[in-house]
User: Fold this.
Amino acid sequence: MISEEERQIIKETLDHKANGTTHMLDDVMYNPVAKYNDPNQLRAEMDILFKNFPIIIAHSSDLLEAGSFLTYDDLQAPILVTRNNDGQVKAFLNVCRHRGARVEDKPCGKARTFSCPYHNWTFDLNGNLRGLPQPFGFGDLDKSKLGLIELPVFEEFGMIWVVPSKTEQTIDFDAWTAPMREQLNGLDLGGHVVFKKWSLDRNMSWRLALEGFQESYHFCSAHRDTACSSYLDNQSVHMNFHPHVRHAVPLSSIEELREKPEAEWDYRPHYMTQNYLFPANFVQVMTDHVYVHTIIPTGQGTCKFQCMMLIPEAPKTEKAERYWNKNYDLIRIVFDEDFVIGEGIQKGLNTNANQEFLFGMYECGLHFGQTAIDDALKGDLTVDTV
Ligand code: FES
Ligand SMILES: [Fe+2]
Assistant:
């Protein structure tokens, strides 16, 4: 059973292929190089995009049971995430309310309470301040006002998403992700298993890393010996769900559907789908497994790429293990091909060789992604609230 959206994507692909055309916008787009190397631009991106919007930080299975916790330090704020006794996920600034020490330092584990190492103030899984040594020194302390600062957190599509700054607003995650929900719910990523998880520091603007996933024009040159052969050359269909984008890259096998009645069409075996969830999350759906990645700026010209490879079930045989490892090895090579190019671009960014980069009419994801970022920085795009 495929969705109406998928039927549409398949139709477009088959039409373009028959006509020798591809999905294009009306015009090219000129993108100032300053958007990649101006420190003020980066500051604004870090302060707005990476503070006010949901970022994927883990898979649900990383917090398996009540009392599981993890800490996360790759965004600007230190974050502590817990699963409380009701099974709910909670996120907090990992900052003690006494004098600011990190309440928990371990990357993950199980705990009933968190005792700050500095003076031993103790917080529970809901962030409440439970106790402190020698409270007489603090007079009439209202403990209820000194709980850990809570951050918006969502456990959705099998992933844990955090908005990494303190806010009074209630975020409407369903509204925010509405155009992607049908597809992402259909993947059952919560039922998947994390086969591998990795994180890379790369010497390139986060924007350059991001753009590697927003068009397929580069596949048959940058990935000539790897990804190119599986896909139709530059035949992506981009669906703009501003600010998110569904980028469908057809495999050569799509041709099999031409003679089949629509009722028998299937989607997943014939596409790799790059779902961009603003500002920096990707759910990259392969025919039988999924990569979830997030790209985070770490400074001027540097970024962190975090990725998890999700497979439908833990491998039961050596053959299955080998199969998934082969996929993993290949994707590491393919991603690296993009990053090496991105790091090369980074080296030339400050030369003034280009005042602008040029986005082709079929590099639609670049247009859509840049427009969404511009809108957010202008204040015209904010996360939905209730
Ligand atoms: S800073 Fe945490 S107990 Fe003092
Ligand atoms: Fe690529």
Q: What stands out?
A: The CA atoms of residues 3 and 183 lie 8 Å apart. Residues 318-349 form the longest helix (32 residues).
